[in-house]
Amino acid sequence: MNETKFQHDSFTCDVDVFYGGDDLVVRFYHKHKEQEANDIRDMVVVDPGFGFICLKFVGEDGLLSGFLDQNVFSESAVLKAIDFVQALSPRSGNAYIPCHVRLFGASGVIEYNGEY
């Protein structure tokens, strides 16, 4: 896993990159909203971040898909995020990579703490 930043216009967020062979998953979030080990007790509200993009290679080509928060990512920010993720893989250069990224909005929250 590598840690880096994503930036588009005035928006900047932290990014975790998880590699599985040639494939990768990128998580967009704010590191300062993450819990430290000593913060995890009683009721913990976990921030889900701004979304994920997955780049998976099938043969010589790839597939890119993901979900990004519509309150944070505009259409131009999604295109920048796609370019950002593709740049993380040396295999992207000559590959055909169709993309499907959905923008999502929260409609509710499910909480479970093991006690109820």
Write up what this structure looks like.
- The structure is a single chain.
- The protein has one domain.
- The chain has a 6-stranded mixed sheet, covered by helices on one side.
- The chain is 11% helix and 41% strand.
- With 116 residues, it is mainly β.
Distinctive features:
116 residues, mainly beta, 6-stranded mixed β-sheet, 11% helix
Total domain count: 1
Strand content: 35-45%
* Count of DSSP-assigned helices: 1
- Major β-sheet annotation: 6 strands, mixed
Give the ordered list of helices and strands. Answer: EEEEEHE
Portion in helices: 10-25%
Task: Compute the average pLDDT.
Answer: 89
Which value, in Å, is the CA radius of gyration? 16 Å
Strand order of the largest sheet: 1-2-3-4-5-6
Strand runs, count:
6
- How many angstroms separate the termini? 34 Å
Taken from the alpha-carbon principal axes, the silhouette is globular
Low-pLDDT runs = none
Structural class: mainly beta
How would you summarize this macromolecular structure in one to three sentences?
The protein is mainly beta and 116 residues long.
Topology of this protein?
Blueprint: E1 2-8, E2 11-20, E3 23-29, E4 51-58, E5 61-69, H1 75-87, E6 99-104
Parallel strand pairs: 5-6
Antiparallel strand pairs: 1-2, 2-3, 3-4, 4-5
